[in-house]
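Regression test attached.
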Amino acid sequence: MIEFLRRLFGQPGSSATAKERLRLVLMTDHLELAPEMIDAMKRDLVDVISRYVEVDREKIDVSFERQDRALAMLANIPIISVNRPNGTAEHAAPVSEAPAAEAPVAEAPVAAAPPARKRRRRAKKAQRAPASPAPAAAH
Amino acid sequence: MHQLQSESPQAQPGTAAAKLGRAIVLTSGKGGVGKTTTTANLGTALAIRGARVVLVDADIGLRNLDILLGLESRIKHHLLDVLEERVSLDDALVPGKHGDNLFLLAAAQSREKDEVETAKMQALIASLRERFDYVLIDCPAGIELGFRNAVAGADEAIVVCTPEVSAVRDVDRVVGLLGNRFRPQLVINRLRPQLVKKGKMLSVEDVNAILRLPLLGVIADEPAIVVTTNKGEPLALHKETQTGAAYHAIAARVAGEDVPAPMPPAARTSLIERIGTLLGGKRA
């Protein structure tokens, strides 16, 4: 019955997915940043953040989004531990917005999207963020 | 990103060169979107309108245009024979089966794309423009040398796109490569109105919101195309069919007539969908 109703009222079609994928792929096409350049940028970004918190380099996700005419770079960088790599720790979580112990993932929007949107995305991403592999270290 | 093109269909280019025909390349980047079918049908429709038309199959090594026109058994010489001056142009041009306005210059089947010299290709297209009203060049898929050679002698472009992410992306790229000089116009091929209505296929608006090209027309995906391809008779020979008429409308627009861009008939609404609408259901 539910299936019947769903069919009756229509479900969201895959064309919306197609549109979104197309939008994103063209955005990166038009960026004309070589993939190596994006990789290098990612590395540098992580190096800076790693000075403050230990991050999961494997799970870093950098993407580009456009809203109206502004292009935004969104970096999703899972934090493994707030321990500073040099061993001091605890109070150091300047990158993450929420108190570090509760926030396994810090979003670092780098560019020009309007603030309201950034916040919304951040919230959304935080929800589906992978659980922190190591319990975030508030010893 | 590419620039917006002029709105109106082109008039004959340059009044000073009014005697020269128009050389239009049909291209898409991606393969299998219907370049060759579009070339065959547009050429047929233009010829039926009374223009003298030559179709040039620039897909060296993968000759196909002859099949769609039903001329495969009549090909004796090909493009490279002419470029390499083994035969005259007149010997290589194969008259179409219907009427005497349409000619085909076939691709070489057993040769490779990089055996074509760009300058010679340019010269060939130039000499064809002196003899025909329209020179339609069927471009190979890809953006390598074959593409560059096909485009070299053309002064206009028609890009063929299907409502798929990959096809739109490739057309976007090709249009970027073509630049402004070719004033590319768009044919959307293989649209399935029923799927669009259900939100399962990109719509004409979706596609052109991204490409932003002057739209020549939209061709539906329909079984008749397969049948006519099987027979080697372009659907444009049958103006009484919906799709045949659509190709004629596209031809009219290419010729500069102010007719609306053909669209496939709207998808039928089933009883159950009507009930759904009545109940306030929303279609995605």
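Expected vs. actual: identical. Residues 35-48 of chain B form the longest helix (14 residues).
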